[in-house]
Design goal:
The complex is a heterodimer of chains A (about 400) and B (about 450). With about 400 residues, chain A is of the alpha/beta class. Helices cover about 35% and strands about 10% of the residues of chain A. Chain A has helices spanning about 5-10, 20-30, 65-70, 95-105, 125-130, 145-150, 200-215, 220-245, 255-270, 290-315, 380-390, 395-400; strands at about 45-50, 60, 85, 90, 110-115, 160-165, 275-280, 320-325, 345-350, 360, 380. The longest helix of chain B is centred in the N-terminal third of the chain and has 20 residues, at about 25-45. Classes of the chains: A alpha/beta (about 400), B mainly alpha (about 450).
Chain lengths: ~400, ~450
C-alpha cells in the first residue's frame, strides 16, 4: 500500500476515506509527510522536565539524618518517620511514592548539590542559564537547540526534530537552524473550520490544500509561508493520527503536566521521530506556606513520572527514554518567617529511565558551610548535560557546551 | 505588479507599514489626502484629535497595575487610535528597548515606560534615550539598581551600546566598564527615578576616546551622535518598516538624515517612508506581518468594534507576547514569526474571526449583510471583493479560480449554479473569508 504525496495532501485534513489498518495509516501518513518513523527500541530520547519557580530541594530529597536540617527548618522540616528513606541520611518527600518505587528498582539517578559558579538568584536569569548552559553571557540558543543544530546538519527537514508540549518554546530548544514546534494541546494544533457548518469542512479543507499546493508569487517570504502552511497541516494530521491510534489505560495526574507527559508518551509510542521533548511543571516559588503547595507539586511530579514510565513500559519503549528533572535553583537553607523559603542555589537533580544507572551521585552539600545562607554546589549542571550528550545522545559535548565537563557515570 | 501603481495603492501600502492597515473608512480618509498628505498626517500625530479614544479608554476602567489589563489596553489603542504611526512607533520602541514585565514584575512601571515610547514616538532620539535610561522599568530590567560605586553592574552599559545605539563591534570591554561607572547611582524608588549620589562614581572616565567626569547623561549624549548609532538605527528602522534586507546606500540615506536632523525621529521616518525603495516593488508585500499587525489589521479590516479579552494571549501564541518580549533583543521578526505552530495559530485566529456569531455581537461584521450592501451577485464578484479587501488582490490566478469553485459549490462540495439558500450563503461567505485569511499573502504586510 502506498499513497502519493498529492493524494495525502488532498485527503490530509479530512478523514482518510480508504479502509486501512491503523499501522498502515500511520506508515502512509509518515511516508507521505516525509517523516521517517523512529525505530522503536533503538532510539535515544531525552525528555526534559523543568520545575519552574525554584524547587526547594531540601524538602524534596530530605537530609533527615542531618541535625542542621531540622535547626534550619523548625516548622517546614519533614520528620524522619515520614520521609521515604533512601539510606540512613536521605529520604524522599512523603508524596513521592511513585518515584521512590522507581528508585528502588534502580531506575533513578539522584545527583546531589547541582549548581554553577556565581549563582544567580533571579528566576528569569537563572532559568536562562540552565536553558542556554551559558552562565557568563546572555546566549541566544539553548543547549539542546545547539544539539539539534549539530545533529540536523546534512539531513532532510524533520518537522519533529523535537517537540515542546508547553505553550511557549523554552530557550532550551532555541536553535539557529531547526524549527521546534510547540504543541501544548493537540486538539488546538488542528486546522479549525466553522463549527456551525461542519458539513462544509471537507470543501474548505480541499480548497485550502489545493490553493496551497500551487501557491506561487514572486515575493520574498511566500515560499516559506507556503511550505510552513503545508507542513503545519501535515504535522497536525500526523499528530491527530498518532493520538487516535494510541491505546493505553495508564492514569496520569490531572492538569497540564500530566496531559503533557501523556502526549509525549503518545508520540513516542507512535514512533514520532523526535530526540527531545520538553514539558514544564510550574509553581515552585514557595515564599509563603510552602508545604501544601510543594507537596502537591511533588505528588504531581512523582505520579506523572511513574505513570509515564509505566506507559512507556506498556508500549515496550522504556529503554528508549531518559527523563531529566531540574529547577532553576534550590531554596534558602533556613526557612523564612512565613513558613516558606526564599531563592537559593544548589539543588538535587533526577535523571530517570530504564537505561539509567540508578543511585546517588556526588556528596550532599554542607548545611553549615554556606554561601550567604545558601548551599554551595558540588556538581556543575553542565556535567549532567555533557554526560547526557556524550553517553545518551551521542553528541560532542564540547561543541555544544564550549568546554569539557566531567562525565558522570549515571548513564 | 505591472505598470505604475496608483496613489491609493501606495497609501494602502503606507498604512500597512506606518499603521496597522485600516477600516474601509480610514483607508478612504487617507486616500483622499493623497500619499503626501497621508504621510504628513501620520508623521504629526499631535495634530490629530484623539480625544474619542482617550474617552473610550477611560470608560473601560483598565487597571494599569494588572499586566493582563495593560496588554488589552495597548491592543485597544492600536486598534482604535486615529494616530496609527504614533502607536506603530511605540511598538517599534518597545521592541527596540525590549523590556519584559516577567522580570520587572510591576505593570504600572511598564505602563509608564510605554508612555515614554509614545511621547517620543516621533520626537528626538536623544531625549528618548535619556528618558529610557532613567525609566524605573528599564532600571529594574537591566539591573542598574545594583549598579553602585565600586561595585558596578555592567548590564545596562553593555546593552545601551550593543542593542540600543551602536551595535556590537563598535566599542571595547573597557568602554562598557567606563559607561557602567557613569551610570552608577542611577536608581529607582517607588516614586520614580532617584539619583543616589552616595552610590555614584564621580571619578574621571574615558569613554569612546573622550575623558571627563561623565555621568549617564554624558554617555547618552556621546552615544546618540555616533555614526555607528545612526547606521544601527537606520538599519533597524528600514527592517521594521520597509524590508528585511536593506542595502548600504539606503542605510546611508536614512542614517545621514538622522544625524543632520540632530536625531529627529520624525524627520528620519519622513525620509524613510518617502524613499524610492519604500515605494517600490522591492518593498510591496515584502514583510511578514507581526502578530500585532495581523491581529490589529484584522480587527480594522473586519471593522470589529468589540475585542475578545484573550486577543493578547492569541498573539502570544503567535509569538508576540506584548510587554513580555523573549529577551532584551526583542522580537527577531521577519521569517522568525513563522513556524508550524505559529502558522496554525494564524489559521485558527482566522477561523475564530470568521466563525464568530456576528448576529449576536452587533459590532462584528456580518458577511451576508455586507454582501447585500456591496451588491455582490455571484461567486466571482464575492471572491474579487474579498481578495481586494483582504490581500490587495495579490494572489496567483490558480488561487482565485479555486476560491470561485469553492463558493460555487453546495455544502457537500458539489458544483451549483446558484447558491441554494441563505444558510449555504452564510457558510460559503465565512468559509471564503477564512480561506483568504489563511493565504500566504494575508500574512504579508
Amino acid at each position: 500500500m502506498t499513497i502519493s504525496r498529492r493524494d495525502f495532501l488532498k485527503n490530509g485534513l479530512g478523514v482518510m476515506t480508504i479502509c486501512l489498518t491503523p499501522a498502515q495509516i500511520l506508515a502512509a501518513a509518515a511516508q507521505a509527510a516525509n517523516f521517517a518513523p523512529r525505530q522503536a527500541g533503538k532510539s535515544k530520547i531525552l525528555v526534559v522536565v523543568q520545575m519552574s519557580g525554584g524547587n526547594d530541594g531540601l524538602n524534596m530529597v530530605v537530609p533527615y539524618g542531618m541535625g542542621a536540617y531540622y535547626q534550619a527548618r523548625p516548622t517546614l522540616g519533614i520528620q524522619p518517620d515520614k520521609v521515604l528513606q533512601l539510606n540512613g541520611q536521605l529520604g524522599l518527600n512523603p508524596n513521592m511514592t511513585g518515584l521512590c518505587d522507581l528508585y528502588k528498582q534502580g531506575k533513578v539517578a539522584l545527583l546531589q548539590a547541582v549548581g554553577y559558579p556565581n549563582p544567580n538568584r533571579s528566576h528569569f536569569r537563572s532559568i536562562e542559564i540552565w536553558q542556554t548552559a551559558q552562565p557568563d553571557r546572555i546566549g541566544d540558543t539553548g543547549w539542546l537547540g545547539r544539539y539539534l543544530d549539530l545533529s540536523a546538519s546534512g539531513k532532510p527537514d524533520n518537522i519533529f526534530a523535537a517537540v515542546n508540549v508547553e505553550p511557549t518554546l523554552p530557550k532550551t530548544l532555541a536553535s539557529t537552524k531547526v524549527m521546534v514546534p510547540s504543541v501544548s494541546n493537540v486538539f488546538d494544533f488542528r486546522f479549525r473550520t466553522d463549527p456551525q457548518y461542519i458539513q462544509d469542512r471537507k470543501a474548505q479543507v480541499a480548497a485550502f490544500n489545493e490553493i496551497y499546493e500551487s501557491f506561487s508569487l514572486k515575493r520574498p517570504h511566500v515560499a516559506l509561508l507556503r511550505k510552513t502552511g503545508v507542513d503545519a497541516n501535515r504535522a497536525s494530521d500526523y499528530l491527530q493520527q498518532i493520538v487516535r491510534q494510541y491505546k493505553g489505560d495508564v492514569k496520569y495526574p490531572d492538569g497540564s503536566f500530566g496531559n503533557g507527559l501523556k502526549f509525549i508518551s503518545q508520540m513516542i509510542a507512535g514512533n514520532v521521530d523526535s530526540k527531545v521533548f520538553t514539558v514544564n511543571l510550574d509553581g515552585f516559588d514557595t515564599h509563603t506556606n510552602q508545604a501544601r503547595t510543594q507537596n502537591g507539586l511533588l505528588k504531581q511530579l512523582s505520579e506523572g513520572i511513574s505513570a509515564f514510565y509505566a506507559d512507556l513500559a506498556a508500549h515496550n519503549v522504556q529503554n528508549d527514554v531518559i527523563i531529566l528533572c531540574f529547577s532553576e535553583f534550590g531554596r534558602r537553607v533556613a526557612e523564612n518567617g512565613g513558613h516558606g523559603t526564599d531563592h537559593g542555589t544548589a539543588e538535587p537533580v533526577f535523571v530517570i529511565g530504564n537505561s539509567v544507572r540508578g543511585g546517588i551521585f556526588g556528596d550532599h552539600a554542607s548545611l553549615s558551610n554556606l554561601d550567604q545562607g545558601d548551599l554551595k554546589y558540588k556538581i556543575d549542571f553542565r556535567s549532567i548535560y555533557a554526560s547526557l550528550l556524550e553517553r545518551w545522545l551521542g553528541a560532542d559535548s564540547k561543541a555544544i557546551l564550549a568546554d569539557r565537563f566531567d562525565i558522570i557515570p549515571f548513564v | 505588479m505591472a505598470g505604475k501603481k496608483s496613489d491609493s495603492f501606495w497609501v494602502r501600502h503606507l498604512l500597512r507599514r506606518a499603521g496597522f492597515g485600516g477600516t474601509p473608512s480610514e483607508i478612504q480618509h487617507y486616500v483622499l489626502l493623497g500619499y503626501d498628505g497621508a504621510l504628513d498626517e501620520l508623521l504629526h500625530p499631535q495634530s490629530v484629535d484623539n480625544d474619542a479614544l482617550e474617552a473610550d479608554i477611560k470608560q473601560q476602567n483598565f487597571d494599569f497595575t494588572q499586566i493582563a489589563d495593560l496588554k488589552r489596553w495597548w491592543l485597544y489603542r492600536m486598534c482604535y487610535t486615529r494616530r496609527p504611526l504614533e502607536e506603530k512607533m511605540t511598538l517599534f520602541w518597545h521592541g527596540h528597548f525590549a523590556t519584559s514585565e516577567k522580570k520587572v514584575k510591576h505593570a504600572y512601571a511598564m505602563y509608564g515606560q510605554n508612555w515614554i515610547f509614545r511621547k517620543h514616538a516621533l520626537g528626538n532620539f536623544h531625549q528618548l534615550l535619556y528618558d529610557v535610561s532613567k525609566d524605573p522599568a528599564m532600571i529594574i530590567w537591566l539591573d542598574n539598581q545594583q549598579n553602585q560605586k565600586g561595585k558596578p553592574n555592567e548590564n545596562y552599559a553593555r546593552e545601551i551600546m550593543e542593542l540600543f545605539t551602536m551595535g556590537i563591534g563598535n566599542y571595547s570591554e573597557q568602554d562598557i566598564k567606563e559607561a557602567a561607572r557613569a551610570f552608577t547611582g542611577w536608581h529607582t524608588q517607588p516614586d520614580g527615578f532617584h539619583f543616589n549620589e552616595a552610590q555614584h562614581d564621580f571619578g574621571n572616565k574615558t569613554f569612546l576616546g573622550q575623558t571627563g567626569n561623565f555621568n549617564g547623561e554624558d554617555v547618552v549624549k556621546i552615544l546618540v551622535g555616533q555614526k555607528a548609532t545612526s547606521r544601527f538605527l537606520a538599519r533597524k528602522l528600514i527592517r521594521f518598516f520597509a524590508f528585511d534586507d536593506p542595502d548600504e546606500e539606503m542605510i546611508d540615506r536614512i542614517a545621514s538624515t538622522y544625524l543632520k536632523s540632530k536625531y529627529n525621529i520624525g524627520k528620519t521616518m519622513e525620509v524613510l517612508l518617502s524613499d524610492p525603495l519604500f515605494l517600490s516593488e522591492r518593498s510591496y508585500h515584502a514583510k511578514i506581518k507581526s502578530p500585532a499587525e495581523l491581529v490589529v489589521g484584522t480587527v480594522k479590516t473586519m471593522q470589529l468594534r468589540k475585542l475578545d479579552g484573550d486577543l493578547p494571549s492569541i498573539m502570544a501564541r503567535m509569538g508576540q507576547d506584548l510587554l513580555e518580549p523573549p529577551n532584551v533583543k526583542g522580537w527577531d521578526g521577519g521569517p522568525a514569526w513563522i513556524a508550524t505552530d505559529t502558522m496554525m495559530e494564524r489559521f485558527n485566529f482566522a477561523a475564530r474571526i470568521t466563525g464568530a456569531k456576528f448576529e449576536d455581537m452587533e459590532s462584528y461584521m456580518s458577511p451576508s449583510e455586507l454582501m447585500r450592501k456591496q451588491g455582490l451577485n455571484n461567486a466571482a464578484e464575492m471572491v474579487d471583493y474579498f481578495l481586494q479587501l483582504l490581500v490587495d488582490d495579490d494572489v496567483p490566478t490558480s488561487a482565485r479560480s479555486r476560491l470561485v469553485a469553492y463558493v460555487s459549490s453546495d455544502i457537500k462540495g458539489d458544483p451549483v449554479k446558484t447558491i441554494p439558500d441563505e444558510r449555504t450563503l452564510d457558510a460559503k461567505l465565512r468559509g471564503l473569508v477564512h480561506l483568504i485569511m489563511t493565504l500566504p499573502t494575508y500574512q504579508l504586510a
